[in-house]
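Sequence in, structure out.
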Amino acid sequence: MAVTPGHTGDAVVAGGTRSFPTRVVPPVELPASTSYLAAAAAAQLGWKGVVLPEVTMLGRRVCVVARLRTDVHAERIACGIGPVADRTTVSTWMWPEFAPTAPAPAAEIVGVLSVARHWRTGMAATVPFARYGEAAMVLPTPAVLSKDYVDNCLPRARSYGLSVVSADSDASVALDVSDRRERTLLPQDAVSRWMNEMVYEQLLASYDLPVA
């Protein structure tokens, strides 16, 4: 099949020329910055804590809402143990021989948010974190008014335990799905410990606190 020069959308086929639809649907845009929408969504969800800047964690772009455990932070400062970024080192803390001497988690992760234009992107970002605690995605209002969202997103969001917050054209947010049911969460493991260290580091930067 070859495209006839000068005829966008037309293709040469046996016996003549066939036209293809060329209408382009404009992408749904976010009504405000990621940081603004994440903070507004956290307030709507009732998550109390610091809304940290968007970061790549586990290969996903997310905003974490967290609180610093000041007593643990003070103890770690006294022992000279600041945030540990090396994932391999953190994984050894789960070994039976090292667990008794491993530093305690200094961050309390309240929830993890993803701000996205489409529910599939938001869901792909938040599902890995829903195994450990509260997770939600923030979507522009047009994205939650589609048949695709109702038929395909809502059942999955409820299955994974995700909340959904919508943001209209004025950046006003509303809770579209709230999932506060009891669910089985994974116990602390090497992944969650490493996540905690990353969040601990972000918290110290946001508070401008000393690092051991």
